[in-house]
From TrEMBL:
Its main location: nucleus. Pfam families: HAT_Syf1_CNRKL1_C, OB_RRP5, S1, S1_RRP5. This is S1 motif domain-containing protein. Residues 837-868 are annotated as: Disordered. Residues 843-855 have a biased composition (Polar residues). The lineage of its organism: Eukaryota, Viridiplantae, Streptophyta, Embryophyta, Tracheophyta. InterPro entries: HAT, HAT_Syf1_CNRKL1_C, NA-bd_OB-fold, OB_Rrp5, Rrp5, Rrp5_S1, S1_domain, TPR-like_helical_dom_sf. Residues 856-866 have a biased composition (Acidic residues). It is found in: Nucleus, Nucleolus. GO terms for biological process: rRNA processing. It comes from the Eukaryota. Keywords: Nucleus, Repeat, rRNA processing. GO terms for cellular component: small-subunit processome.
Amino acid sequence: MKVELLSDFNGHSEQLRSLLIPGHKFDHLRVLERDDQKLIVTSKFSFLSCDFIPSDISQLNSHKVVPGYIASITEKGCFVRFLGGLTGLASVPQLVDGFVQDPFQHFTVGQSVRAQVLEVNLDFGRFNVSLKQSVCYSTDTNLIKGYFLEEEKIAELQASKADLAKMNSIDSIVVGGVIKGVVQDIKEYGIIVDIQNFKDFVGFVTHFQIDSELKVGDVVTARVLDVVKSDGIIDLTLRRNLVKLGHKSNCEGEKAGRKRRRKVLEIHQKALGVVELIKDEYLVCSLPDYGNAIAFASAHDYNIRVDPHEKYTLGQSIEVVIGALPEDSGVGRLLVLVASFSDPTGGLSVKRRKMLRKLNSEGIIHGQVVSVGPLEMKIKVGKNSVGKVHVTQVVDEFQDENPLARYSVGEMITAKILKKSKHFDDGVSSLCYELTLKPSLLGNEDQEESRNCSDTTLSTLSVGQIVIGYVKDVHDDWALLLISPTVIGRLFVLDSSTDPIQLARFQSRYQIGQPVRCRISKIDYGNGKVDLSLRNLDNSSKDEEASEININDIIGGRVSKILPGVGGLSVQIGAHVFGRVHVTDLHDVWKDNPTRDFKVGQFVRCRVLDVSRNEDGIINQVDLSLRQSLIESQLDAAAPSSSNKRPDSMIVEKLEDLHVDMEVEGFVKNIVSKGCFVTLSRKIDARIKISNLSGTYVADPEIMFPVGKVVRGRVISFDCATGFVELSLRRPLHNQQRDETGLITLKELHVGNLVTGVISHIASYGLFISIDNSKIVGLCHISEVSDNHIGNLESHYKIGERVRAKVLKVEEDRERISLGMKNKYIKDLRMEVESNEEEGLVSEQSLGTNISAETNDADEDRDLGDDSNLHPLSTPVFSVFSSPVEPLDVVLDTEENKLTDDTSIEGVNFATTNEVYESSNKRAKKRSKDLREAAIREAERKLVEGDNVPESIEDFEKLVHVSPNSSFIWIKYMAFLLSLGDADKARAVAERALQTINFREEGEKLNVWVALLNLENVYGDPPKEATMAVFHRALQYCDNKKLYLALLGIYERSDQHDMADELLKTMLRKFKMSCKMWLKRIHHFLRRGLLEAAHKTLDRALLSLPQRKHIKVISQAAIAEFKIGSAEHARNLFESILRNYPKRVDLWSVYLDQEIVLGDATVTRALFERVISLDLPPKKMKFLFKKYLDYEKAHGDEERMDYVKGKAMQYVESRLG
């Protein structure tokens, strides 16, 4: 049993804890929760005395008030627990009847409360409760009764450790009885009385209970007001009126007291009480109308804990309700309830209560307007009463202007009372009425019905309902709208319009008190929030779908991030909802780098293309389009498509729409060594091999085909099952005929032809030769270059060198040609070639084709010369071309691609004969072996780089066997196992990796440790302990600083702020001289909005770090402040540095850059003016003037640019002068 579960009173809980000993038996306990190992029980009297406490959500009924206790307190409210772990949330608005700034100021963990059930959601197993005193007040005296019963128990426990006779002797003293004593001492706080026959107890009389002068030794007759057995104190009164009546009440049959006692005490009767004593937990009162009987009342209720010494005064008259008579109370005392706990009029005079009842019965009042504001109008009612008309209580229907604007000060109006409350003005209490002017309610004679109709609460609202809100306040992104006096809705900027111009004018569009017709899009009952939207107002449906984001909706958005490459845009479309715009959906007319037309914070109009949700119906991803043609077609179904859209800019959304040789367009997405990837639409990407990028050589694909470039190609192949699409940007050579220049085509070349050309590219596996008088490039494999072995081709040949070769193979379907340069291939044709060289021709017979006379004439000017005259071109021209082959396109252990003696590269057979591999000489065998090993290495590389993605455990086992030191492969292996839901196997793979990777590969091992930390942070049992266990292990093997930073990143990405805080403290203790660590902590606080903590951290950093690091840490902290903190504080930091280092141009430049990003032109220009007025060397001033001019070019006009140029000229003239 927890200490707080011992009693309803904190003081008793502590006393019982100190007195209870092992073996003590409780008469009654109540089981709160049960599990396999233990029971959680309580001895709270509020639980023991209640017949019904719910233990299951199905037992709950709305508006039912049941006892419970506070299980925990957060910023969102209090969690109230009942039996069986059943827990409900009391949100902040439902804690008390007034405003709550901090829930911890009103409630404590373990506090006994009474809770009213508000709403029960059986589907989600959740329910909300209210702790407001106005609905959860006590209806019996069990609270004070439990207090006195526990007092008896505490006294018994004390007596068991001391003298039992003391306990028995005090039982003869009766509360309200009369006893005699002797004044023993007179103190400032009261009189000590020695009571005869009760040496272990002392009598005490407060000065309020004395009506005559006394001195030490006087014998007095006193009346007992209270007996506190645990403290050994008897509270007495010496006032004659109380003592006399108490004495008479002990004398039965005295006629003198009959008149005073003619009223008989009855349960639930109301009576006037006078406060005689004020204790910490209860009040002792006398009841004048009932013979000054002594009664006891709790000083507070379950849900309100106040200091009774501040709330009550001695002699104060209060209204009480008889709760239990002495003979029935179980504690021998008269127990009463303070009426003000439940009756808001309990503290009013009889006259005021009669007036209030009269007003309540009539409901209609007349008053004079004393003030009119945009949200409220005050009305004077009678002499001392005030009425208020809320802006939402004026009209029934929507109007374009503020309904309060029609009223003026001094005007007499008629209104209807809705509610009443107390109003305090300069300490004077008066009644305040909440009124309504709605015509529908003024004509309703049933006041209760009128109150219900006007009382708009969260429970009466529904998603999709159209309501009228009145602007209360407008912020950057939110407008607060009053729906009723107690309900405030929020309108997010992106829900206010779909027009980007209107969205940019959000703050200026709304004025305080302006009426707005809107639709409820979301209700958060737990936090008491209502989200509003201006979308779908014309839709009469009240379904929740009408307020959600649906396909084909036209909505407003704001660019939140420009994604790198061709990632497109991330667009915010709701308070917490973001969508993605694919690069192909940015414009109707495609152009290179389309994202450059957008900037972060820009408002746009979007069309919803697709919405994906999880199993709970929560939105995961929204695909959007900014294409004007799609937006216009949705806004007006009859509108034609945009005239600016090119007919050939077709976006292919489905693979089924493709066909071979179809021309398509796309954006270059990525460049790799073997080609590039192109995105055709948001769902389809295509690959273009480097051999298909162009018909000529491409020197640098990244320059010729940068990311974001628009390209047009044709479909070579595609697979609907796998989603694979391959394109080519080359024109099909086999379909070409000779053009006007007479270029040779692939169709005209045959095996055995002798050709000449220029080496255009050298690879480790062969030479690429650009054939003369054509656009054809052939490959001469390294095995076909020479009769002798050549280890390094680059040492024997150079790009641009002219060579002869023989056509070995022609593949028209794949548009490829294989060449050979061995001497034996051209030996039989040497004489014929040499004779033709003298004329600069290649014979028609040698080509084996009927080349026209025009071709021969064109070749007459070509002078090949002999072998000794072959030399590299001085300025080789590189056309748009890429290699037509990939090195060793081999897949390991597959049926179709086993390494045989016919090793091929992308289908080009370099061993049409078996002489390479069937040769018996050792050199040929070694070359064959080298080729096989190269093929294996290339296949492994392709698997690692993702060309052939591993799809099974066997695939990964082969990879880790081949590359045991590659952390990339091990981590991919772990991720694959996690995707199968097997965290244990992933953990085992990580352990294998740590054992396998060579100890010298520290970076690789660190990667695996970090991956294991990420795994335990998600799948550990429990995650916190598992993560820390791995972390402490890793510290023994890894760079501690890097490991700490990695774990910090894990905690921050998973929003574990508490763990991140603890880790940062440890890091600063361990690396207090590291500037990076201090900056990490500053960034951590700034991201969480804890600006004060970040500032204090910077101060600590400056005390710990050496002087040489101060500039770095201050400047970096200032940059962070500009981005995610306070711009004003960032300016102060920069100014503090520049005061000491005014000639540091690098600091001025960074300062200017941050102000430019912030966007305040006035501040930025003022800073530029300060900078150009500095006395710096010309080179530095030139840099600053250029930066100023660039700024004005981007943000200013011609006049501003001329101004900067003039300032620069003035500087030059001053230097020359």
